[in-house]
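Figure 2 data, in text form.
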Amino acid sequence: MSKNKVAEHAAVVPTPNAEHYQYSVAWSDEDQAYIGRVAEFPSLAAHGASMEEALREIRTAVAGALEDMEECGEKIPEPFSKRTYSGRINVRMAEHVHRQLAVEARQQGVSLNQWINTKLGAPV
C-alpha cells in the first residue's frame, strides 16, 4: 500500500469516544460510595457520592485511558455497541438439563431454541 493510501486509511479510523462504552453504577456497602464501572475495561472503576458523580468519574477515567492507549499505540477495546453478533452461540450443558429443556419445549409446543430464548427472557 502506498504512503498516501496508508495516510488516507489512518485518517478514516475514528477516534475512540468514551461515550460509546457500556457503563454501570451501583452502590457499594463496603466502600460506602457509588462505584462506576465500564464493561469493556473491567479493571477500571471510579467512585462518587452520587450515581451521577460516579458515572462522571468513570467516564473521565475511560477518556484518560483511551488517550494513553492511543498515544502508546495500544489496541483499544471496541465498544460493545459497535460489535457485531451473529445471534448464535454453542452452549454445552449437562445431558439431564438438555433433556429437561427438550421436555419443557415439547410441553409448551415450541422449538427447543424458542423455549431457551423464552427462559432467557429474550425475544425470538
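Caption note: The first strand starts at residue 23 and ends at 28.
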